[in-house]
Amino acid sequence: MIDEHDGIAQLRTILLQEPGREQWQQLCQILLEWPNASTLSAAVHYVLPHLESWPDTLRRPGYGWVADLQANGFRPYWEVVRCLDMFTTPDVFERLQEHAHRLTIRKFRWNSSKHTLDSFLELLSYPLLSQIESLDVSERQLHDDGLATLLEHPTVGGVKRLRLEACHLSAHGLQKLLQAPVFSALHTLDISRNGLGNKGMKYLADFEGESALRCLKMDYCGLSKMGARYLSFSSLLSGLESLSISGNPLLDSGIRILSERADFTWLRSLALSECGIGADGIRALSKVSFPALQELHLHQSVPGDVGAIALSRASLPSLVRLSLGFCGLGDEQLAALLQAPFWPQLEEIFLSHNDISDDGFSLMGRSVPPRLRMLNVSQNRITDQGMESFFVKGHFPDLERLYIEHNQVGDAGLLAMAQAKMPRLRSIQASSCNVGDHGIFSLCRASWSQQLHILWLCCNRIGEEGGRALFELAERASFGELNLANNKLPSSFVANAEGHPLRKKIRFLNLLGNMGEWGG
Fold it and tell me: To 10 degrees, what angle do helices 251-261 and 279-286 make?
């Protein structure tokens, strides 16, 4: 048994780490061994808000939870199931039926390809699922008729978040959804990767009922300029907080139509990546009022000089996350963006796969947003000189994640990074650079090195001494992932690593592609 005061401290330590399978199992074990039933409920309620943001693939019950419930009756930690989706087989449901009145499952996903639609509908009839609010049936061959059948099920009537990605739906499937009683209560709808086409957008434009919809995702649905026109007439847009229509060939003409007609007053997130947007489209967007917009995703757009200048003049007073990967941005375009009124308030910046050189990166180093949490400059033209100039500021108080893969960054660049103060840094992705043992020595001596959770350094030139330094660091740190694939580690080092205690401590350790291959 654990002491409850130590238990709270242990829970806090786990929840501050990067989510991982090991962390989840440790958390489960602490709750199972909790000594005081009266304080267990408080511990569970402390844990729940953190678990909401964990990936679904990690949130699974610890060993023996179902058996323990059967043997000992209901215990408060089972409230955790309200943010899980692991009950997907009839035998588990049968074992938990006697406790159905005490359990509340809010999220459920059809994640077994063995289920037919009929068997899935049978699962939805179990009392345990009578109060689900989030339903995910993505990548199942529903087709339009199957969706109509699903929408008739009583349990679906209470759903507020519905995910229908890649369900082989057409515009008629969307029409059936719009006509179903459940639609008026939906808060979130993801119907991406279906063949909705422009006709589906016409059905959206024709919808005149009441709606609580706040988040709409229709990526890769075959929308064109005409679809944008229909969408701009939809009354649903005026209430949205999040709109994602990436991967549709809207082009500049479609973006202009949306910009001129749609009401984006309450929009907080807008994703228009891979829509064929050029300078004219960016210029049209920059004229729109986005008072609440916090996230803007424009991957694979081609703004050029004109578009970059236009974007820098846009009114985006709430923007904190900007994504401009694969946009052909060079130093001049970056310099224009650095002058934008919104730049100092950014917290997450995606600039991967562009044409930024040391000059541009150095210029960015003199204008680093004070609350920057994530920076991705992978696949640019940055070298050690750019790293030295960028990190000369020396203090990045909120930076948590840094991505510099596929740049010509070597040992001197890592030395410059290691000398900076980054008290919250948790993740570094520096694969396919030019890092050797001396760069690793610098990294391991950094003041922030022991707090790292994720370190990817594959495809560099790290040898045995660098590998040993990283393993020594890992023994002191709380690594969840360490990727050293395709380096210059000798076969003896790789062979010894297979039986090393770190193999159990680190959930992902990859040494493949070295002189001796091994991964786990």
Answer: 10
Phi and psi based region of residue 368 (left: phi greater than 0; alpha: psi -120 to 50; beta: remaining) = beta
Please give the structure tokens belonging to residue 387.
Answer: 């790293």
The answer to whether 127 touches 98, Cβ cutoff 8 Å, is no
pLDDT band at 84 (very low <50, low <70, confident <90, very high): very low
Q: Is residue 465 part of a domain?
A: yes
The whole-angstrom distance between residue 171's C-alpha and the CA centroid of its chain comes to 29
In this structure, which amino acid lies at residue 502?
L
Question: What pLDDT, on a 0 to 100 scale, did the predictor assign at position 38?
Answer: 65
Q: Rounded CA gap, 97 and 78, in Å?
A: 14
- What b/e string do you get for 56-79 counting C-beta neighbours within 10 Å, with b at 16 or more? eeebebbeebbebbeeeeebbbbb
**Residue 293 and residue 340 share a domain:** yes
> Based on the domain organization, do 455 and 371 belong to the same domain?
yes
Cβ proximity of 512 and 491 under 8 Å: no
Characterise 64 by phi-psi region: left (phi > 0), alpha (psi -120 to 50), beta (else).
left
336 domain-assigned:
yes
In a domain, 190, yes or no: no
- Is the Cβ–Cβ distance between 293 and 259 less than 8 Å? no
Last residue of a domain, one of 333, 355, 377: 355
The arithmetic mean of pLDDT across residues 97-101, rounded, is 60
0.70 surpassed by pTM: yes
Contact 34, 77 (CB under 8 A): yes
Angle at CA of residue 507, ends 502 and 512, nearest 5°: 80
Domain that holds residue 123: 85-179
Evaluate whether residue 188 is within a structural domain: no
Token pair recorded at residue 324: 């401009």
pLDDT top residue among 70 and 151 = 151
Mean pLDDT for the stretch of residues 58-68: 52
Total number of domains constituting the chain: 4
**Helix, strand or coil for residue 260?**
helix
